[in-house]
C-alpha cells in the first residue's frame, strides 16, 4: 500500500489578502507552508502519513515545489512533481498512478485535522472497493483507491479527481469533521479545530 499526498496546487483562494492600505497583494509563501497551530500546514499531513503502516510514501508537488521541498523534510518519501498542476487535481492523481501500481491511500495536503484513527479504519477495510470516511454523509479523506482503478486513473485530467470513478465507494461513518475540513482561506488558519462544522 502506498500513501499518496496530493500537494500540487497553488492555493489560489488564499492568495489574495489585504494590505493595511487596502490594496490587494499576493501571499509570497506557498499556502501549504503557512503556519497552522505552530507548524507548516502540509507538515500535519506528512506526519500523519509517516505514522501509518504503509509500504511506500509518495507526495505530488507542483506549484512552488522547490520551496516546499526546502522547508519540509521528506525523508523516506518519493517526491514527484506534476508539471500540469494548473489543470487541476486530476492531473496529480494521474501522476501518482504513473508511479504506483498497487493500491493507494490518498490524502490532501491542506487537510491538517484528519484523525489517525480514521486513516487506520480506512486501511483496515482496504480491498477491491474504494473506501473513505464520511462525516454526516459527506465523503472525506483519506480515500483508498484499489489497484483495479489504475487504468482509469491514468486517463484523468482537469479538476474532477477520482470522483466519477468511486461510485461504489464504501463509506465509514465518522463523527469528526476533520475528515472533510480543508484550509481554504486565511480565517481557516486561525482555527484550532474545524468545530464550525459541528453545528
Descriptive report:
This protein is of the alpha/beta class. It has a single domain (2-11, 26-198), classed as Spore Coat Polysaccharide Biosynthesis Protein SpsA, Chain A (Alpha-Beta Complex), CATH 3.90.550. It contains seven helices and twelve strands. It has helices at 12-15, 41-50, 65-71, 89-99, 116-124, 150-153, 186-189; strands at residues 2-7, 16-18, 24-26, 35-36, 39-40, 56-61, 78-81, 104-108, 131-135, 138-139, 143-145, 170-173. It has a five-stranded mixed beta sheet with strand order 7-6-1-8-11, with helices on both faces. A three-stranded mixed beta sheet has the order 10-9-12, with helices on one face. The chain is globular. Residues 16-26 have low confidence and may be disordered.
Amino acid at each position: 500500500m502506498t500513501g499518496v499526498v496530493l500537494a500540487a496546487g497553488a492555493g489560489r483562494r488564499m492568495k489574495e489578502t489585504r494590505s493595511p492600505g487596502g490594496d490587494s497583494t499576493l501571499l509570497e509563501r506557498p499556502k501549504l507552508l503557512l503556519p497552522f497551530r505552530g507548524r507548516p500546514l502540509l507538515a500535519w499531513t506528512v506526519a500523519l502519513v509517516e505514522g501509518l503502516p504503509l509500504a511506500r510514501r509518495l507526495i505530488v508537488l507542483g506549484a512552488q515545489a522547490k520551496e516546499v521541498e526546502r522547508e519540509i523534510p521528506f525523508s523516506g518519501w518519493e517526491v514527484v512533481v506534476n508539471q500540469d498542476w494548473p489543470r487541476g487535481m486530476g492531473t496529480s492523481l494521474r501522476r501518482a498512478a504513473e508511479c504506483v501500481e498497487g493500491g493507494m491511500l490518498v490524502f490532501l495536503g491542506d487537510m491538517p485535522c484528519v484523525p489517525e484513527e480514521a486513516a487506520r479504519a480506512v486501511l483496515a477495510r482496504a480491498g477491491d472497493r474504494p473506501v473513505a470516511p464520511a462525516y454526516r454523509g459527506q465523503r472525506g479523506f483519506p480515500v483508498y483507491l484499489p489497484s483495479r482503478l489504475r487504468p482509469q486513473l491514468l486517463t484523468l485530467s482537469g479538476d474532477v479527481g477520482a470522483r466519477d470513478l468511486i461510485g461504489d465507494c464504501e463509506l465509514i461513518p465518522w463523527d469528526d469533521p476533520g475528515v472533510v475540513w480543508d484550509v481554504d482561506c486565511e480565517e481557516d488558519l486561525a482555527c484550532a479545530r474545524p468545530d464550525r462544522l459541528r453545528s
